[in-house]
User: Fold this.
Amino acid sequence: TTTATDDTKPYYVTTPIFYVNAAPHAGHLYTMVLADVLKRWQVLKGKRAILLTGTDEHGMKIQQASAKAGSDPKPFCDKGADIFKHLAARAELSNDHFIRTTDPAHKEAVEYAWHLLNERGYIYQSKHEGWYSVSDETFYPESQVHLVLDPPTGRKVMASIETGKEVEWTSEINYHFRLSAFRDKLLAYYEENPDWITPQAKMKEVVSAVSAGLEDLSISRPSSRLTWGIRVPTDPTQTIYVWLDALINYATAAGYPWAPGSEHAGGWPADVQIIGKDILRFHCIYWPAFLMALDLPLPKRFLTHAHWTLGKQKMAKSTGNVVNPFFALDRFGTDTMRYYMIHDGGIDNDADYDNIHIIERYKKGLQGGLGNLTARITRGKGWDVRRAIERFSGDYKSASPFSQGHARKSAIAEFEQLLVELPQAVNNRMEALRPNLALKGLMDNIYAANAFLQAQAPWDIAAGLKKGELVPNVSSKEDAEHQMDYIIFLSVEMLRLAGIMLQPVMPAKAKQLLDMLGVADDRRGFVDAQLSADKDYGVSRLPQGKGQAGVLFAPLMSDS
Ligand code: ME8
Assistant:
C-alpha cells in the first residue's frame, strides 16, 4: 500500500462555492482574492499549493431562480458557472480546480458519503416541521424568526431575525442527521484547537452556539418539492439538502472518496478554508460534524472574513446592492483591485466599498509609494544602480561606508534593520491569516524607504560630485560615491524585497517591478527576499547606469 505522507500533501486552500442564482459581486471577488493571496504566498515559499473555487448549483434557491428565468436548471447553472469562471480568470486567480456541484464526480462523492453516514447510523427519518428560508437555504428555530412587514407587498411575513430573509412553514417527512450527538466531540475539538477559526471572536461565537445545544439537522426534502438536487441514493422520493451536498465539494475536489490513508495526495485536510462570516455555522459546526461522522480529518484552519458594504448596507445579490466586479476590474485594473481588496477588505469588521477609496489607495500606495520609489531609484541621474548593487550585494555589512560614529550611521542602521526584519514580519502576518496587515506593513516600509531617501538625499551627493564639490561628512570623491551607492543599494533592496513579496497580491505589477530591477526569474522566491541574500540575483540583466526606467503606475484614467 502507498500511504501518502505530509511531504506529498499540497497546501490546500478553498473558497466557498458560490450560488449561481445571480451574478457575482465585489464580495465574491474579495473572497477569491484573499484565498488566492494565501495560496500564492505558500507557492512563494516553495510549497506546492492548490486553490479550489467553484459553484453551488443545487437546491430550492437555484430551482426557483431558474424557474423565474424561464430556464431549465442545468443550462441556467451552466451560464452562472461560466460567469464565476470568468471572474476567477479576470481576477488572475491561480485556482487549480473549479468545482461545480453538478459535476458527476461530485454526485458520486455525495452519494458515497450518504451511504456511509447511513450505514453508521447517523441518519434517521422523521417528520420535520419548521421555518425554512429558501434564500438562506436553512431551517430556523421558532426563537430565531419574527413577524415583519414586507414593504414591497405590504404583507406581514415571517422572517429570520439574523438575515431578514422570509421563511415559510414546512411540515414534511425527511431524513435527519444526528448532529446533536456531536456536541461534546465538537466542543472537545474546539478546546484542543483554539486557533481553529480566525478571528478569535468567531471561534467564540461557534463555541457558545454549540455549548447552547444542537438540534438534529434535516438533510433532505421531498423530491416533489425539491426536484433540483441529488436524490437520496436509498430513497429517490427524497432529495439531499443543498448544504450537505455543497460542503462535500471540498472533499470531492481533493479526490474523495479516498482509499484509506490516501486523502493527503489530493490535499485533504484543507490547510485553510476561507469563508464569509455569513456561513460560519455551516462550515464550523455542520461540516466538522459531517467529517467526524465520516471519520475524516478536519480542515486545519478557517479564515472567516467580514463583509463589504455599499452605502453601509451589506452588499448582497438578494438586494441588488452590489458592485459589479467586472466593471471595477476593467476600470481600475486587476492588480489595483486586488491591492484595494486586500488592503481595505475587512476580516474583523465590515468595510465600506468606495471608488474614492480605490483612487486614494492607488495614489498613495501605488503611485506615490511604490511607483515613486521605483522612479526615483531607476531614473536617478547621478548614480549607477548596477554599480551600487554589485558593490554591496552579498556582504553589505563589511563594505558599508557607514561605520560607528558616522553622522549618517543611525539613520542607515535603522533602515538596515527594517530590511532585515521585513520578510519575517510579512510572513508572520500571512501565516496568521492576516494578509491585510501583511500588506499594510509592507507598504509602511515603502513609505519609510521614500522618507529615508528624502532624508539621505543621494541626489545632493550626486550634484556635489558633478560640480566637484563635497557635501558635509563626505571626505573624498570615492567616499561620496561609496556613500551614495550604499544609500541607493539599500533602497533598491527595499524595492526588490517588496517586489518579491508583493507577487501574491499584485502578480503583474510585481513582475514588472522585478523585471525593471533585473531580478532573475529564478530568484523571486521568499528565500530570496533577504537583505543582500546573495552576490548575484540576476543584476547582470540590469542595464548599466539605471534600471529599465518606466512607469510602474500610470495616472488613473479618471485623472485625465
Ligand atoms: O453562501 N462581502 O454562496 P453565496 C464579502 N453557496 N463577501 C461576501 C459578501 C459581502 N458583502 N457577500 C458574499 C453561499 N460574500 C453558499 C456557500 S460553501 C460550501 C456554500 C462572499 O453565493 C463570502 O465569501 O451566497 C460569502 O461567504 C459567500 O460570498 C457567499 O456566497
User: Anything to note?
Assistant: Residues 16-19, 27-28, 30-31, 56, 246-247, 249, 275-276, 278-279, 307-308, 314-316 surround ME8 (CB under 6 Å).
